[in-house]
Design goal:
- With about 220 residues, the protein is α/β, with parallel strands linked by helices.
- The chain folds into two domains: about 5-155, HUPs (Rossmann fold, 3-Layer(aba) Sandwich), CATH 3.40.50.620; about 175-215.
- The protein has helices at about 10-20, 35-45, 60-65, 80-90, 105-110, 125-135, 145-155, 165-180, 185-215, and strands spanning about 5, 25-30, 50-60, 90-100, 115-120, 135-140.
- Strand 2 (about 25-30), helix 2 (about 35-45) and strand 3 (about 50-60) form a beta-alpha-beta unit.
Amino acid sequence: MGRIVLDHEELARVLKALRIQGKRIVFAAGTFDLWNPGMVRALLDAGTRGHFLVVAVHSEKDLRKNSRLHSVEGPFQNDRDRLEIVAAVHNVSYATLYEDATLPALLHKLRPTVICVGSGDSFNPIDRELCREIGADSLVLEDGSRRLSKRLIEKIRNVRVPRGQPGKAIAAKAGASRGTSKPHSRPVVARSTARKSGSRTISSRARGSRENEKEA
């Protein structure tokens, strides 16, 4: 499992030591929210392009601030959950967070050997100039993840949730079908009734004994 490193200065020191050893550092970035096979294929492919793979996850705060960067209001999963999933993917060495405005500065700091993007993205002239500045190769991964994510988003948008509280209704039906609705009500009533009837019997006996004593 990869290591989650949120401190970019610490991550830069680790990667610098690896570069000195002659290791190739691969960098990939994305939202990694609605997972699909294309995302997994992209990260597995990126991992084969060098010795260590660093994956930057777009922060929830930045995505919500710049809704144009995400297809729906989101992301659906928080930063920690997305980082843990990314770090669990085979070949991922390090996972961190990034914001769109500071991504160029982060790349200058980490100085990867290869920068990868998915098939739905492309390297514009500014991106290519950035690659030249830090001495990194650019690589487009043909993974189809963007297309698959759009399909998932459309399915989510088309879901119609019935009115009311379907969860409680389903639970009530399940309990009724098993004959276990209100499982504790009958035993509790039975026990309380037994105690009350017992107490009345004891009281009547006591009264009867006292009346017998008076007659005597």
